Each structure stands twice: as C-alpha cells, then as structure tokens.
Amino acid sequence: RGHGTYVEEEKLIASVAGAVERVNKLVCVKALKSRYNGEVGDIVVGRITEKRWKVETNSRLDSVLLLSSMNLPGGELRRRSAEDELAMRDYLQEGDLISAEVQSIFSDGAVSLHTRSLKYGKLGQGVLVQVPPSLVKRQKTHFHDLPCGASVILGNNGFIWIYPTAEQKDEEAGGFTTNLEPVPLSDREVISRLRNCIVALVTQKLMLFDTSILYCYEASLPHQIKDILKPEVMEEIVLETRQRLLDLEG
User: Which residues pair with 130 in a beta bridge?
Assistant: First the structure.
C-alpha cells in the first residue's frame, strides 16, 4: 500500500478523497486538494512575492529563482555581477507572474526554479486560473496554442495561464518584454470562455489537458460565456466532453 491508504480488517481503504493511482502492485490515493509537491522538470507558473526572487507556486514553501538560473534580458549569458542583480529589478517586480521549470528540490522540500530557456519568463496579458494540482495531467509539453485562438500554460503546480496566441514569437528579449497593447474583444471573449470551461472541468473533477479543454470549449459554444458557470450547463458540457474523450480512447 502507498500514500493515502490504510488497512482495516484486511481491506485497503482510502484515507483521503482523491484519484487512485496504481504502479504495478503499489496502490496510492492522490488527494484532490493538496499543495504542490515539486518534481524536477515540472513546468510551473508562479508569482514573485519578494525581492531575491521568492516565488509563490502553490507549494508548502516559497520557491526560489536564483539569478544564476535566469537568462538575462536578450538571452545574454553574462557573468552574474552586482550590476546584473540590480538590473533585474528593471525586468522583474514583486507581483509579476512568471513561467519557469523546476531545476532541483532543496533538502527542506523548497523548489528551485530556472528560466534559462527563452520560452520561459515574465507573463504579460492574460488570465490566471488556480486549480488543484492533481487535476493537471502530466504531458510532454505544457505549452499549448489552441486552435480557438488562445494559448494556455498548464502549470504542474495548478496555476494555469490563458493568454492571446502571439502572431509571431519574439525570442529576442529572452522572455522579459511585456506586450501592453490592448487585447481585442474577440480574444478576450475566447480567453473568458476558456477560463469558464476550465472552472467547469474542475468542478466536475475532469483531468485538465489540451484535448479536454478544447473539447469543453467546443461543447460550450452554444451557450453564453456567463452561462457556462450555471451548474446545469456545467454538467451538460462536461458530460459531452467526457463522452468525446471516451470515444477518442475507444
């Protein structure tokens, strides 16, 4: 028996409400509502909480983004000096959202992050949705450009970022420029619909990954964006999503 289980009268019983996971003969129950436990290689979305780059990532302790684990603006790899450290304040401030990768886990369980790849960095315009980490499906990639016209970053830590799909990828700035152009109404409507679809999937305890989100988005199209949050509409569109996923697997 594994975590989240106990034996009583020779029966294996779950000690938490969650999803059963089996690895060979080992049986675990992963709690639906829990803090994020970092694993090396995970993609996370987090918020800068204080200088020296402490980051809130929904885990038990603040995560850490070291200066040596960052690309400097423009993707330059310079020697990290005091000037570089001061210059970072021009690009990162408390309250900023970032995407990053888990580089290592400290002995106390705190997570060390890095943003060395140009696909990571500061997040600009979009919407943050917080969900239980156990509902985010692990995949090869957690960055998805959806055909509906918006993109999502599915953070393993349960922070999901929805934003307009860029017409062209600007990799010159090393992930530190923020686009402050007004977002067109059509893009805002797509983002709002996606956000409500994710809330509906979470309410019905369905795993979150690019296909489930897209199917739910398509199932929601006959409804107004604000109506997606009505319990009866949630149930209807998630039922249709679940059926399409089963058909796909079948």
Answer: 159
